[in-house]
Amino acid sequence: MISNFPGAVYRCENNARWTMLYLSAAVEQLTGYAAARFLDDSLSLTDITHREDVPQVFEKVQNALASKTPFHVIYRIQHADTSWRWVEEVGRGVYDALGDLKYIDGFIWDITVAEEARTATLLSEQRLSTLYSQAPVAIILNNFADGRFIDCNPEFVRMIGYSAEEILRIRYMDLTPPEYAESDNRELQNLLRTGRYGPYEKQYIHKDGHLIPILLNGVLIETPSGEQHIWAFIQDITERKRIEQMKNEFVSAVSHELRTPLTSISGSLGLIASGTLGELPSNMNSMFLIAHKNAQRLTLLINDLLDMEKLLAGKMAFDMRVQSLVPVIEQSLEHNKAYADTFGVKLELGSLPVGGLVNIDAQRLQRLQQVLANFISNAVKFSPANGVVEIHVNRRNQLVEIAVVDHGPGVSEEFRTRIFQKFAQADSSDSRQRGGTGLGLAISKAFVERMYGEIGFVSEPGKGATFFASFPLVDTVALQQ
Which residues pair with 465 in a beta bridge? Predict the structure, then answer.
């Protein structure tokens, strides 16, 4: 048994040097020294024990002997190769019939690997704990089933105004305005499907009642017992929202101030360039044409900025009415044909479905026309010379989908995630050549979603792109009833 034990077995006297009466040969593998060195007392365990550990080991052993109980100690010894090793030791005193101590029996084995792993784990836990408590971002842990708070860091306590004890008695729904119920549920479904959610903007209600704009990211974890929890990271974006509001107000004010004089300038340049006011020398006429073209581009930018400002401020009214998409599609092709001709691109209309009533904005169909104009103009700009842009209308279950297909370079992987963001453009140098404000798709997305539709795209680099908007079909039978 002793020869197979993964460590040293000993019998020693109770003194400062732990004078050995017996020591198994395995001590050489443990310490690098032969057992004979310890048995002739030329070397002792105390000699190779770390000086910081000697007092506590001696104290623990003496206390155990005094109470006649086993002892258990962990300490460091220096191997013959000068490296330090962690060892674990258990032992107990052996007493005579009168209860006097005769000697100590025990076992010692190497636990360096386990101790280093334990130390690394403790260090990692300490770092994570420090990060959790000192992080400038709020961190919370919620129960997925009922939304109750399980834990939160000090930054969340500071952000929300409640004490840590109060937070642990409520649910995240108690801090959320009711209008976010639907979007919260949608994010939870994404969380179940993918294991994470966000970035997701919403608001929390501070203890004093004011609303805090926040940005959420979260992950789903499962405990050993099978319970699902949500780790969420929360950023207070109050300052960002304030700056955005100031920027939007500035852009709106400037745009309004520019619109009237720019309209006058553009109109005047158009009259001169068209020859209405008389013939001009060819070199002057070309300059006026360039000036008129750039004035029109500025007018387009200002109109887009004002549209975006109205959308963000919730000031753009939508008059939703049931109507057919066919006239909208046909008018859109007619209005954009001249633009496509300037690029040498042909517009082709696929077959149109019979019927297909949808509920869309009825203000001269302007909003949906603007969406289609953005789709078509982008497709034309990125199509090769003598290329074709196809417009298809398809029925898919209870949806009708308008799709604009081009055969250009497609959408790059890097650009896909921000294609519907404000001022997003695939490549600045390319955008200058092709024109555009970077607002068209962002406005289109807002228009489509305000009309209860969905917008998206599919693309393969080098093989073109398809942008689509889909709307729920209206039940004509229900309308007749």
Answer: 406, 459
Structure confidence at residue 436 (pLDDT): 58
Distance of CA 201 to the CA centre of its chain: 11
pLDDT at 330 (0 to 100):
85
Distance CA 91, CA 11 (A): 9
- Note the Cα 339 to chain centre separation in Å: 40
Q: What is the token pair recorded at 426?
A: 């695939």
C-alpha 435/C-alpha 204 separation (Å) is 41
Could you tell me which residues come within 8 angstroms of residue 98 by beta carbon, excluding any fewer than 6 positions away? Answer: none
What is the distance between the alpha carbons of residues 23 and 29, in angstroms, rounded to a whole number?
13
Cβ distance 377 to 335 under 8 Å? no
CA–CA gap between residue 52 and residue 45 (Å, rounded):
14
In angstroms, rounded to a whole number, what is the distance separating the alpha carbons of residues 181 and 171?
A: 13
Q: Is the separation of the CB atoms in 353 and 394 below 8 Å?
A: yes
Q: In terms of pTM, does the model score above 0.85?
A: no
CA terminus-to-terminus distance, the chain? 93
Choose among 332, 314, 335: nearest CA to 469.
332
Is residue 423 a contact partner of residue 444, using CB atoms and an 8 Å limit? no
The residues pairing with 11 across neighbouring beta strands, listed in sequence order, are 22, 105
Strands 357-361 and 346-349: unpaired
Dihedral angle sign, alpha carbons of residues 95, 100, 101, 102: negative
All domains in the chain, ordered by first residue:
8-112 (3.30.450.20), 135-236 (3.30.450.20), 241-313 (1.10.287.130), 320-480 (3.30.565.10)
Residue count (the chain): 481
141-167 pLDDT, tens per residue? 999 999 999 999 999 999 999 999 999
Question: Is there a contact between 115 and 74 (Cβ–Cβ < 8 Å)?
Answer: yes
Residues paired with residue 445 on neighbouring β-strands, in sequence order? none
